[in-house]
Amino acid sequence: MPVIAVTSGEPAGIGPELCLRLAEQTGRGDSIGTIARIVVLGDRKMIAERAAMLHARVALRDWDPDSAPQAGTLDILHLPLATLSVPGRLDPANAAYVLRLLDRALVGCQSGEFAAMVTAPVHKGVINDSGIPFTGHTEYLAERTHTHRVVMMLAGGELRVALATTHLPLKEVSAAITRESLEQTLRILHEEMYRKYGIARPRILVAGLNPHAGEGGYLGNEEIEVISPVLEKLRAEGMLLVGPLPADTMFTPPMLAQGDCVLAMYHDQGLTALKYATFGNGINVTLGLPIIRTSVDHGTALELAGTGRADPGSLFVAVDQAIEMANRAGVRQ
Hints:
Layout: E1 3-7, H1 15-20, E2 37-42, H2 44-53, E3 59-62, E4 73-78, H3 95-111, E5 116-119, H4 124-129, H5 137-144, E6 151-156, E7 159-163, H6 173-176, H7 179-197, E8 203-207, H8 222-236, E9 240-245, H9 247-250, H10 253-256, E10 261-264, H11 267-278, E11 283-287, E12 293-296, H12 313-332
Parallel strand pairs: 1-2, 1-5, 2-4, 3-4, 5-12, 7-10, 8-9, 8-10
Antiparallel strand pairs: 6-7, 6-11, 11-12
Helix pairs in contact: 7-8
């Protein structure tokens, strides 16, 4: 069975308690525990304290790859906190711990110990407050794996939305979209739709950058000077690309029915629509990495930490998708 590593994320957020809910998914005849092993990376004492706080009926045990899944049991690969963590209260002293979780999961994926990694949310602000520059999971994992370009994609149900740019101020988006960068993004998206979803010739809907996709140049020239030439080049190679499309109508059901995925030009252009349609059941997938990585589609929700009210749906879907991708990769090998 593939082993899926789940990083518990920011300890002051909802990540640890969402991970506790994974114990519901192990050891039953109809559960993921019959098709994969799940190991949570985090401080065992902190996770135990969170379980006690929430009166969670979960047994914790140290990770042993040779042990069998047990109902109501969560396997923990222990990595120690730097200092005590309180739900809802960020502490920069634990920022390095959060990154150690990612590094350990990454090493395990690269060595073959783990088939995939799933990440609970981290808090970008507190990591930067600790003195460690950090833009996000996507960029961090790309740097750690020496991957020149990765693509951030969120998926929920049948809707898949990839991004040409990720965590940038809006004023920097236009300059970041070049012919070279857009071509690389589309090539990665095209390839990964096969590798991760089994779609050999994906139909990709491509958004314009400007309102009405530039209105023939009256509302911007990026579609004429950058986006359209790239689409024409790749269409000549056989890619099925539709666009550039006005973003305000691209997410209507008749248009979405024409594609297998969407490429938006910037973060909120694509993810606002996706999260409206799928929030709580959507996931984040990093395309282009040499490993499989999925994630929840929400943040640390500090206001919910320690209350037991956080919805684990997105984490469950992220784990399910990681298993499917790992199995598909195994078949290809």
